[in-house]
């Protein structure tokens, strides 16, 4: 981590900030129930919440379009060291975050969580892997070759899922090829169990198409820096976004849009939506000069990975520490938020205030001009 004043591009900062802001809200509901817009699709389909993680990866690519400029002036060893150092750091932070607080409550007291019971992959781990592969491809291959590899990832993933999945339903929860691959490589005890079985939505195989979200974000970032403030540039973003959404909807009939499987149609759909969002932000901020509202979101946009990590670690400890026989998180929501606004409204109120807590930390960092690179 370091203190620096990175080059800024306001619409991209706001885009990152919107993504982190919404990510914290959807990840930290106060109760067992939440408004449908704040829930992931049960399986196939895409809700606004399903847009958060791919948009974060897209924003990582945007940031790379600035940070990778200096790579051309560095020797090969230094470039590889920078890429792998950042990859390992982000991956380890994600792994340790899921292991926190290293102990768990049992009937006889606290028990150390053995490494054999830890989840290996996750959100930060996927960010790390996607960043690593995207950086290597972009740095060492010409642009056309990078797009060719991206197409290979999307089409190859579709082929693997179709031919190696359950013939009856290759895109089902238990019959998809990704779950079998992850069980073989990772082992069930190192996978996510939130679906009731060992299935990791951030697994190894489904990381292949996710790399394309970062690559698309990178080239979009370059395009915006060169043409984003022009009318033609905004038009191109809208046109390409519309084309990708149309292709995704057509592909959806054969390879369903699915966040948990990170299907290739899902990649095209989310990138298309992100292009539309960026075009709107550029129009409002750069063309209409309506930027007074942006300050709130740029706080998140300037320290995105750090504030996301902070939000996750804080809530982990809210669940770990107990008041009587319930967690602090449950106690706060039972006796405060649910008492004030029962059900979904109280759940949303907690999520909003928790997001504002994380924002306040980001605001302090921004005032001190501290931008923490993870």
TrEMBL record:
Ranges annotated as spanning the membrane: 12-31, 51-71, 83-100, 120-138, 145-164, 204-224, 236-254, 266-285, 305-323, 335-359
Keyword Transmembrane: yes
Keywords for the protein's UniProt record, in alphabetical order: Membrane, Transmembrane, Transmembrane helix
PANTHER family membership: LD22376P
Protein name (database record): DUF5009 domain-containing protein
Source organism per UniProt: Chitinophaga filiformis
The organism's taxonomic lineage, starting at the top: Bacteria, Pseudomonadati, Bacteroidota, Chitinophagia, Chitinophagales
